Amino acid sequence: MSREASPLSNGRLESRLLRSAQYSVYDFDDAIFHNGAPFPYSLYPKGRVWHRSVRAASTVIAGNDYLAEFAAKISQQVVMIPSCVNPSAYPLKSSYELSEIPTLVWLGSPATEPFLKMLTEPLLRINADTPIRLRVISSGARSLGALEEIVDRVQWSAESFASSLADADIGLMPLPDTPFTRGKCAYKLLQYAAAGLPVVGSPVGTNKKVLDDLEGLSAPTPSGWEDAIRDLLATSARARSEIGKAGRNAVDAGYSFEAWAPFWRATVGL
Q1: Does the record carry Transferase as a key word (predicted)?
Q2: What residue ranges define each of the domains in the chain, with the CATH number in brackets?
């Protein structure tokens, strides 16, 4: 079971299903035990669902060490398997020469789009000196305020989102530092790196380790974001290529389905 059996459940359904199985596995990759999650997660608090599911499952799979630590307070059988991607599903970036107007990319959902607003001042300052575009791959058309002047929206679809990454220049993953975001599994960074993009991210939770593994740039403050993006835009195509290829190699070795498949099979009893 992943996260929940029903969006309307209070956890009793999940508990009953998990306890009735000869061997059951509960998998989660967000800090859903924090009922202070942002909208729209806050509409249906999941802390009780998570608690009952973790207690009922034979084995719990957590997507990072932060999540595993919380689960281990309830269950004696918790394993950490990082959120993984299938690198072959991502077209690989072929050229690292910047286009006339460089493109930064952010991939996500309407629920996490507000995180982009923390980049408003850094990105607009960069744009005032060197024109840039921010490609937002998401759903809907929520306003991002002052950022709208540099935003190009691409509607997310399972068939096309990956191809919208490879011709961008830099992947971005801003995160505020909250109990909920510390449970994030750095999935955006892994997706960008699978496409061969250099990445910049907030050093929050698992992002810290993943940024190190991908040779990405850490941006703890607004000025840090501005400096990191300016540095990547100013460096050579060869240097960006080396960063992008190092990130892709790190995904292949440590964050791919293939790399973790044997351990996952053993964990779920296959």
Answers
A1: yes
A2: 12-80 (no CATH), 87-254 (3.40.50.2000)
Nearest to 101 by CA among 125, 129, 124, 133: 133
- Burial status of residue 11 (CB atoms within 10 A of its CB: 0-12, 13-18, 19 or more): buried
> What pLDDT shows up at residue 115?
96
Model confidence over 146-184: pLDDT tens digits? 999 999 999 999 999 999 999 999 999 999 999 999 999
Cross-sheet strand order for the sheet of 170-173: 151-155, 133-138, 103-107, 170-173, 199-201, 217-218
CA gap 108, 197 in Å, rounded:
16
Are 205 and 68 spatial neighbours (Cβ–Cβ below 8 Å)? no
Its sign, for the CA torsion 213, 257, 183, 268, is: negative
**Burial of 74 from C-beta contacts in 10 A (0-12 / 13-18 / 19+):** middle
pTM of the predicted model as reported, rounded to 2 decimal places: 0.93
Reading the block at residue 152, the tokens are: 């190009």
Separation of alpha carbons 6 and 185, rounded Å: 23
What is the spatial order of strands in the sheet that 25-28 belongs to? Answer: 25-28, 59-62, 78-80
List beta partners, residue 26.
60
